[in-house]
Write a structure and sequence with these properties.
mainly alpha; 5 helices; about 70% helix; about 0% strand
């Protein structure tokens, strides 16, 4: 049974692991350089599945401010080619 686990397709190639790590580090660097602290807070909550209303309540901001921040994040990510990276 142990040999089956070692031979399974689920074992990731070390090169893939390194490539993914570099990708995530690159994205994190771009986020830190391009987004305001407010946008980072909004993004963090948004990617964790919170609704605009939930984020607004948590950050004590109007829902429209959250929507505007999401739109700015989208524009910045498109402008800076965040989407050029793929794994």
């Amino acid at each position: 049974m142990f040999i089956d686990i070692l031979n399974s397709q689920s074992v990731e190639d070390p090169l893939d692991t390194i490539t993914k790590k570099e990708f995530y580090q690159s994205v994190e660097t771009k986020i830190n350089n391009e987004l305001s602290s407010f946008e980072k807070k909004v993004l963090y909550n948004y990617i964790n599945g919170q609704t605009y209303v939930d984020i607004a309540a948590k950050l004590k901001m109007p829902v429209k401010s959250i929507d505007n921040a999401i739109q700015r994040i989208r524009k910045k990510t498109n402008k800076n080619n965040f989407n050029d990276y793929s794994t």
